[in-house]
Batch of 4 targets.
Target 1
Amino acid sequence: MNNRIIEGFIVFEGIDGSGTTTQMNRLAERLKRLNIPVRCDSEPTGSVAGRRLRTLLKTGNAEDPLFNTTMSSLFSLDRALHVYGENGIISTATGGVKLLCDRYFWSTAAYQGVNGDVDEILELNNAFPLPEYLFFLDVDPNEAVKRIDRRNAAKEIYETAAFLEKVRTLYRAALKRYEDSGMKIFTADTSQPADETEAFIASCLDFLPKCR
Ligand code: TMP
């Protein structure tokens, strides 16, 4: 396991509908109010690989082993560009900007792990540096799917309660392996109101002033 930790790199993970994007944006707003430089990224990114992934997320067959391996490889390629590229994670976070990221390689372990080999996926992502903070946003998959339905957008291939239940289990197992990695890992129950989750996340960040 790569134990290099990038200070100021903060990752949000969780099943679809768990609120990763909402909480990342809320934290970014909070940091901006405190004049702390911040940037929000997400994976898949806008790279060529990332754009292809967005299409495949609408049309692919998650059960097909070849499709699944292709997805693991494409997500990892997209991530390599994101980590090491110009204005990528490393250059941005080491330049003093808090780099918030909606999803990182635990998403590949948990999602592509459902129809693939988690060990192989983690091996493929082994060289990537770790975030300083990792927030796992946890919610019941049935509640998550209700939230996704309320968005009224076309469903993506992984957005069923049965699939997300498996993803949730794999997330927990994958994160357990990183308990001694030196990252600060927190689980937030996002069945509670978003304000409460936001306050919890802020309370976990050592660099923020503590409010009473
Ligand atoms: P999102 O923009 O709603 O987070 O959607 C991204 C989708 O891609 C979501 O269903 C999770 C999935 N995904 C993977 O399957 N593997 C990955 O490595 C990443 C980053 C995302």
Target 2
Amino acid sequence: MSNICVIGMGYVGLVTGVCFADLGNTVNCLDIDHSRIEKLKKGVMPIYEPGLEEVVERNVKAKRLFFTTNYAQALKDAEFAFIAVGTPSGVNGEADLQYVRDVAESIAEEINHPITIVNKSTVPVGTGDWVADIIRKKRGKNALRFHLVSNPEFLREGTAISDFMNPDRVVLGSLNREAVESVATLYQPLRAPILITDLRTAEMIKYASNAFLATRVSFINEIANICEELGADVREVADGMGLDKRIGRTFLDAGLGWGGSCFPKDVKALAHMAILHGTHPQLLQAVMEINHNQRRRVVMRLRQALGGKLVDKVIGVLGLSFKPNTDDIREAPALEVIHLLENEGAEVQAYDPQAMENVAKELPEVKLCKNPYQVAEGADALVLTTEWNEFKQLDFKRIYSLMRTPILMDSRNQWDGNALREIGFTYFGIGQGNQVNNNKRD
Ligand code: UGA
């Protein structure tokens, strides 16, 4: 069993630390945010992530998992230091590396024994070498024996623990065989394929993976828009494509497009890197553009359905987090839709099972409701923006009786349009061209 320090208690760092502790290692989790660490010490999770609290509690009790803000304490006996700090978007879309630099400098200041530094933060290709340089410079003549390994993380919010414990692959990038093998032993219990590459290739695998998944979603959204015009149904198109083993069905759900703390930032950063090095990332640019248009298109369709204007219309919004099972509202499609609606003079009332606290801070003008029925009350249209389970089987007859105008915009394709039309609703899905034509026929 190993002694591990994980630096940065965001999604990736916290889940990594907690899961390594659960595998039997001693893990010191560090963050410079005192209030976050104090809360974690009391068992209060800084994020909503199913299953996380139990695993934290179990490992704290077993004295394998510790939280601290003190570098010296966290690194004292560490064989591995995992860097898992944020790399937010800078002004031009580039990844901002100030937190990675701070960590590199702190490691250089605090350690006096050989160590393997493992980078899990999503960083521009070449950052591994840059981090190594920072440490070497900072140490000067008092050289530190260390190796750097890139170990990109592929876990998703909402299923983070099981993604960590059951990865499709573990990617390790380093030119030092011994260092890579020592990190590989940490992952051995997970029995996943381990791919060993050089540092820069591992860093690129992370960006390419996220960009490819975002591309699939934008691709199906573009097909959805064409389906709407041509009278086809994108859900069945995706099923038909997905049965081809070369294509597969995942990440082909048309909707409001991708959001969250990763895809938007990473696609932007990859495009920025490409431009900086003289290549033209046309595909990535189109992928981003399609994604923004998806939100605008939903608002345009609502405007059309409501007689050409949204001024003083009351729009109910179901779901605020960027996807179900998380309270994360970073780059959430729902928030962009709300902004667009408000810009056109609409009033928004909304509900989300987990993200209301975060939204109250960011969008204080939005009326937050207690449940989906309150959202429907007096609404001129209801938009499904995040496909939480609790929105899947609502009492639509009750909703019909509560709304001022019975218009449903199912922008995650979760509801049965035909059944809803029978109740009396005007129903719109995404890429359901066959149903759009039915609407026209009605
Ligand atoms: C994503 C990747 O899936 C993870 O592998 C990666 O580790 C993570 O980013 C990261 O870089 O940290 P996450 O942001 O949690 O994970 O979200 P996803 O489940 O990938 O969904 C991203 C967005 O795409 C969501 O807004 C979701 O609603 C949207 N999406 C996804 C669709 O619109 N359609 C789909 O078919 C699938």
Target 3
Amino acid sequence: MKKALITGVNGQDGSYLAEWLLGKGYEVHGVVRRTSSFSRKYIDPLHGANADSPSKLELHYGDMGDEKNLRKLVEKVRPDEVYNLASQSHVGISFDMPEYSTDVNALGTLRLLDAIHDYCPEARFYQASTSELFGCADESPQTEQTRFKPNSPYAVAKLYAYWMTVNYRQTYGMYACNGIMFNHESPRRGENFVTRKITQTVARIALGLDDHLSIGNMDACRDWGYAPDYVRAMWLMLQQEEADDFVVATGELHSVRELIEKAFAHISIQLEWDGEMAVERGIDSATGKTVVKVNSKYYRPIDIDSVLGDASKARKKLGWEPTVKFDQLVELMMKADMEVVATAR
Ligand code: NAP
Ligand code: GDD
């Protein structure tokens, strides 16, 4: 039985990846942090839950900031595949915590790569790289050849991790890959990322628990895909003859504003826009009530206006295709949040 080690197993991607690998018959080991409030609702059912199944998820305490701990874990588990998904993953917060974001996202990756090099150099390594590496890109759509111009502490730290992954591949012949993933979302998305914040708040408005959505830059455009599709691409990258780096994206571009309109349409509210920039608001065209307000506290010191990916290489070499695009993604997240909010009421 193959063994996989996932850092960040308790996150959106980690939980879907654990499910995917368990389904493939892997023995899965996940790294979790010690936290004072305990929330592992997506991975708890996988944690030794199915007594009939020979494969299971085993959890280990660890932290990307703790070199000894990572080395001991790698030495103990001796995985065949390592998926490094752990990170301080919020771009906006990385401006408030640049040093911490660098320690976890950049040096954390180096610590892990070095442990693998020393204890199980044959293991295959996946690094969660990101479209944020492109920053305000020189060309559109972006491919594996597009120049990197990171413009946040998060992205600069991820750039270091990207190149360290390439460096360990080139220097030591390790099978190490970067997935340059564009935004991917799901009902498990963290609540302070824009998609989930919108679907959750709109669901609360529908159920009378909130009266408006407070939002930042609505003109930012992203290439939003569905997280389970993206974890499949991660796995595919580690099943090839040679290690390589791949862009993973849907090739569709939409704005935050479109996302808001679509989410409100799901609860039968049609929006009209009034004002500009920090005083812009969205009005329910049937009632005249303001249901969207811009709040400049959600603006970033620098933002990326637009990122759009060209995943031709992943399509060709991995046979990967996205199964869910923007419209369906918003629908499924709205449906899920309507249920979650109604149940929690
Ligand atoms: P996520 O939901 O925020 O999950 C991140 C995970 O990392 C969490 O489980 C978190 O633990 C863990 N973590 C944070 N700091 C840690 C530390 N110091 N030591 C150990 N674990 C730590 O992120 P995601 O959306 O699943 O993304 C997975 C990875 O892909 C991340 O590296 C992200 O930067 C990258 N990425 C994501 C996207 C996207 O659109 N989702 C796109 C490109 C790249 P807790 O559960 O304890 O908080
Ligand atoms: N989070 C958030 N909250 N973003 C907002 C808000 C708000 O209230 N209002 C507007 N936005 C805008 C942000 O300024 C940004 O332009 C866009 O919505 C998307 O923000 P996020 O959902 O936080 O995602 P991100 O694109 O910055 O980063 C995500 O995707 C990256 C891949 O491109 C994260 O998952 C990163 O970890 C990932 O690397």
Target 4
Amino acid sequence: MSVIQRLLIANRGEIACRVIATCRRLGIESVAVYSDADRDARHVRLADRAEYIGPAPAAESYLNVAAVLKAAAQSGADAIHPGYGFLSENAGFADAVGKAGLIFVGPPADAVRAMGSKSASKKLMEKAGVPLVPGYFGAKQDFQTLSKAADDIGYPVLVKASAGGGGKGMRVVTAKDDLKDAVDGAKREAKASFGDDQLMIEKYLDRARHVEIQIFADSFGDVVHLFERDCSLQRRHQKVIEEAPAPGMTVHLRNAMGQAAVDAARAVGYVGAGTVEFMLDGDAFYFIEMNTRLQVEHPVTELIAGVDLVEWQLRVAAGAPLPMAQDDLVIDGHAFEARLYAEDPDKGYLPQTGTLQHLVFPDRVGVRIDTGVEAGDRVSVHYDPMIAKVIVHGPDRQQALASLRHALADTRVVGLPTNLDFLIGICDSKPFQRAKIDTRWLDRLKAPKAGWRRQRAATPADLASAAHFEISARGVKACERAARSEDSHSPWFRTDGWRMIDRGHQDVHLADTLAPDAAHLVSATARRHGGFDLVIDGVPFDASTEGLRVLGDDAGFLHVFSDEGRAVLSLIDPAADDEDDARAAGGLTAPMPGKVTAVYVKAGDAVKRGTALLMLEAMKMEHTITAPADGTVAEVRFKPGDQVDEGAALVVFDA
Ligand code: ADP
């Protein structure tokens, strides 16, 4: 058995930080790698040392095998942990690491290869006797073959990229007429994301759950499973909240699924951590794929099983046997993980970029935060927009869910839109509380989601807190100005309302962003012995502002947080003119930097509202730009393959 002394982590963000935490506990030196965009990233700050690997685009840094291997050689690392995503399921990389004489903290390259293609892995599983979703997994890819396969399977069907991951290259088709578009779209997305456009077609299970089994194998042929995770809470086939164990799971079903997963691992000579994913329809379960790496949602398993899966990975990679046998593993309580993303759920979950001006997490027993960022860090367009995973453990499902709700309500992010309110809304919804959901539940749900936004109308207490905040901010600014001036004690720099004769007073003009036309005036008069007397819109205010916390952002908004959500107030400068009301109309601009992948119209075309005009690929997701109204296309400014900047006018449109 060899011992790992210095581990290079070929990844970034929260998973790099997560691996570093275990290294620290085990006394292993950690080596981070970073691109130009990540020079000051949290994982670089936490690691014992760091190596530069190239420009911001992942293809030139985190996916660059030669650069990663060079970093490993330079740092004297003896092992490489690939994390998830990036090179983690790249068999060529696993091979190259071995050839360089280093330990790859992951399965043998052949196992990665065998499971890398969903279609090939299905054939393997079929042989191993693991149940499959009915479908077509063949090599022939002409449309006629695919269409015939869909007819045989029966609609609805799911068109899936064989090389897929992260829900990309996947389309649900309910009617034969829509198959062609779905096949073309899935091919394009698969080609762009994975460089491979092979598709497969499966029976679409409309009311099923996603239940996956964590397995672990060592190089002595021992394989165990660490129970299941239920990842049914999804939007557009991507996981949002995961939990363990699965609600309603019976011992009998757990054993059957666990055995099938162990069989799957044995069939490919697996070593290390892996996940075997199933769709669960009633009591019937069907293999969908195996992920040959650590999963994003591994912490819920760690919390219920009381193990550190990264430690297990490092031990097994170094040639040690599994730390525990199947019979020693028991489930303790219940765990949830919620993925906090910089994204706008109201705009089709569009990823958001920007600076995290404030980022505050609860610090409480039973709550674990896995994150790769801190306040002041940027969420950039280059990588995944996940901000953090909020993970909780409790004695049972109900208490764990209450704890998750509480932890999310105590999380504060200012600077860019997130899905935080959306996550809290899910915790508050009855179907989720009763675990009466399936993988399509969120996507079917339309109306209630708007009600999940937790921005509340401002109360007098909010206005009072915001005014206090503003007055002290003015004080700080005045001190800064005074410090820079020649006469720093001049009374003219004082903003506390000091006057030679009168008791001083200051006015703060505020508007609630939910009702921006109604301005509020808070008049504050300094009390002789400190503090202020407040009058809000002519009415004296003397109620409590306890429990309110104000955070300001760079754009001049004041966010007032309480248990019931947040109020957002804007500062009004009464001296300023009404600013350009005629702000450029939204128009057909790129919502973020990206690549044009398809153009559906040409100049002169008459289109109806909602018609797809062009397709943009950004952050590996496709975004369709649609006509805002009935009208005519005047000009299309880009062609497929063009790179566009955020805000670029894509189409000129006459409504
Ligand atoms: P990816 O690798 O892109 O994440 P998966 O094969 O793991 O793709 O599937 C992701 C999700 O898509 C599943 O969790 C489930 O919600 C949905 N899905 C996959 N296969 C089916 C199916 N046959 N029927 C219904 N939903 C499915």
